[in-house]
Amino acid sequence: MLSRPFNLMGILIHGDPKVVKEGYKIFPSGHTSFYACPNIRSFASLAFLSWYLCGKVKAFDRRGHAAKLCIVLLSLLFAALVGISRIDDYWHHWTNVFAGSIIGSVVASLCYLLFFPFPHDINGWAPHASIKMRENIELHSTSIGIDIV
To answer: Any residues with CB less than 8 A from the CB of 19 and at least 6 apart, and which?
Structure first.
């Protein structure tokens, strides 16, 4: 049995209105990328968390602790599981999830690097503002002859 046609954005459409409107929400998958789309949001937030943890636990300090990398990669694994669940539940095509994950990862990387140096940097654990403030304090203390411990 055919459903009654309805108007969507000036176009006469046949079919279930809920199914047709859901079809307009597929690219990119919001669950893996950014705010408007939940998939983008999960990759953006969890990739940012991964960058942040990488700097805070000093994952690249050449001390060889595999546990540090496991902690860092765990958040990316959770983000990937969100994307896989979207594909498995037939909410999105894999290309939509992949595009959302790329967008979310790029946004997370840009946001992290705006406030923090690269995690492999000697001061990778601290924000740019904190590093600048410490440099100013050290410069001022050496100019007046005070030793900072």
So the answer is: none
Indicate which residues carry an active-site annotation.
Answer: 31, 92
pLDDT digits (tens, 9 = 90+) for 73-106: 998 899 888 888 877 877 777 888 888 888 888 9
| Torsion sign (Cα): 34, 37, 41, 43 | negative
CA distance 39 to 32: 2
Give the DSSP per-residue string, 75-110: HHHHHHHHHHHHHHTTSS-HHHHHHHHHHHHHHHHH
Distance CA 56, CA 136 (A): 22
47-58 mean pLDDT: 89
CA 53, CA 77: separation in Å to the nearest integer? 14
| pTM value surpassing 0.70 | no
Q: Which helix (H) or strand (E) holds 13?
A: strand 11-13
